[in-house]
Design goal:
Elements (H helix, E strand, L loop, with lengths): L2 H8 L3 H13 L3 H14 L4 H13 L3 H14 L4 H13 L3 H14 L4 H13 L3 H14 L4 H13 L3 H14 L4 H13 L3 H14 L4 H14 L2 H11 L4 H13 L3
Length: 264
């Protein structure tokens, strides 16, 4: 680093150091970024925010021991700092200790129940544990708290599918599409749900829109072909197969996954 940068860094606040570290990390200077997070935490040792940010950085580098030390240092300063409990939970989850992670996430939820991201993290953990009813409960809370976030509605839809509540899953996916109308994946997912429920004609508009938004994706043509074929429209299905062209191994794997989603 240039000497001028080092001199300016010495006068930075902890917040400025973290912002600089974020930029360094985005540019690929991970070691330099980590040193700045560490410096920020040292300069504000009594502020749990910067200890927690440091812990988050260690999680990203998969340094579990240092991450736990940073989070516990934050909790020693403030035992009600929700983000630190969330961080400890992340470390446990990263190491496969899902029940231990659950206890930490629950603390974070109790401390900040109106935080949609914490509710989502709780839901995602329950997804990993295949506890879908609990996943649905927290995903719905996240979506209610942040109703314009498409991914939360998508997650609700996925949980409903796992519980075989397909009609409700379609409604939640329609909410996701409404929140992110330019995202081709949500349209394609909605089309797949219509196919899964035997509503083949209704699958055509969202699949057509997915193709319009991302015409270079051949698997969307294949899925639209599936809808036409199931409707009995063989010529339209053949046309979509021709438009799909050659599928490479990645495309074939992606298509197999999509077809698995609607093979009830």
């Amino acid at each position: 680093m240039k000497e001028s940068s080092q001199k300016s860094a010495s006068s930075m606040t902890a917040e400025e150091r973290c912002q600089w570290a974020d930029t360094l990390a985005k540019d690929g200077y991970y070691d330099v970024a980590l040193r700045q997070y560490e410096a920020a935490a040292r300069s504000e040792a009594d502020n749990p925010k910067y200890q927690t940010i440091l812990g988050d950085a260690y999680v990203l580098t998969e340094d579990s021991a240092r991450a736990l030390r940073a989070y516990r240092a934050a909790l020693k300063v403030n035992g009600r700092y929700a983000d630190s409990y969330l961080g400890v939970g992340d470390v446990y989850k990263q190491n496969g200790r899902l029940r231990a992670a659950e206890g930490q996430y629950r603390r974070a939820v109790r401390l900040r129940p109106n935080d949609p991201y914490i509710q989502y993290k709780m839901a995602d953990l329950y997804r990993q544990m295949s506890r879908w009813e609990e996943a649905l409960t927290h995903a719905r809370k996240a979506a209610a708290l942040r109703p314009r976030t498409a991914y939360y509605h998508f997650f609700v839809s996925a949980a409903l599918c796992a519980l075989d509540l397909w009609d409700q899953a379609i409604v939640s996916m329609e909410d996701a599409v409404s929140c992110a109308p330019e995202d081709d994946y949500y349209h394609a997912r909605l089309g797949a749900l219509f196919i899964a429920t035997g509503r083949f004609a209704e699958a055509v508009p969202p699949m057509t829109e997915a193709i319009r938004l991302n015409p270079a994706k051949p698997t969307y043509h294949c899925q639209l072909s599936d809808a036409y074929r199931l409707m009995g429209n063989v010529s339209a299905a053949a046309r979509e197969d021709q438009l799909a062209g050659h599928l490479d191994d990645y495309d074939l794997a992606e298509l197999a996954l999509a077809r698995h989603d609607y093979a009830r």
